Amino acid sequence: MEQQRWLLLLFLGVQLLLMGAFLYQNPHCHGFISFLRFLIQDRPEVREELPFLVQVSSPGIRYWDVYSNLSQIHPVDISEEDLPNCPIVSPYINGPLKVMIPENLTMEQVVEKNPLVELGGQYQPPDCWTQHHTAVVVPYYGQAQHLRDLLFHLHPFLQRQQLHYAIYVVNQVNNTAFNQGKLRNVGFWEAMQEEDWDCIFFHDVNLLPEDDRNLYICDIFPAHVSVAIDKFNYKLPYGGYLGGVFALRPIHYLRINGFPNTYWGWEREDDDIAARLKLSGMLLLRPHLLFGRYHMLEEGQDPSHKQRPQSPGLLARIHRKWRHDGFNSLGYRLLSKELQPLYTNLTVDLNFPAP
Q: In this protein, which residues make up the domain named Galactosyltransferase C-terminal (predicted)?
């Protein structure tokens, strides 16, 4: 009996070691690894409260300026071939962030605050090689102030995570109604022609992340990331809400045939995406509410937080059309591609037939 007990303990120990090695090597295990990082970085000292157990509005919590300690990031005097790999846990991640937009902020000031960002909004860690390559696609409908504030906050947020990333802003002309799905499809296609991105974040222009442990890397399934928005009291407004920030690997995107092209304004795009995930057999992941916290800038176009009952037969209609309405039926004309100091600006005419 004693020998069997020891054999069982040995077996369990080997299994734990194998699982640990797998998680260490596998970049897809984002959720579990994030949780481990969360625990490692926030072990409190004696009599110190865990900061993530308190509401953002509560006093006494230490919040970091999103630009704090970024001055420590600078090029090193060695060749690119000799750069070390970036650590698994970025040393610049701090946790809860202050959202502080200076008054009378100009785009020139944002450029000055981010000297390592290259033309077109591209960034690579200057002192290490990273495994994570993320494109951020921002559908845009003329919210210039929102875009400036997003760039001011998002660039240092992503640099803290030691990502290789670029920001693509996709705006439409010759249309009176906003077509977010089609702009997302355009952003995906144009971004993937430029780089072999392994992760695409589709990002509303008016949402600013409040915790840099909310990693902008992709998991083994699609992820709805903006799960705790201040406007909605840091909780989902309803169970099927998929608005805000959404992350897909290219294989996920192709599997759901991208986003629908036929929704103008703010119709039932969330319901359509949820149905595509279900019909393609994929799960939807969400970060913990303590990570996926966002500040919403003054509300613009999106009233999609209001829960609306599904109309009868909606799922059946989506089932009939989703394989034919998406990336494979995308038609647009690229009018210009401008490499701005902080982003790549794509201007498109959406009134163009599919090829």
A: 224-298
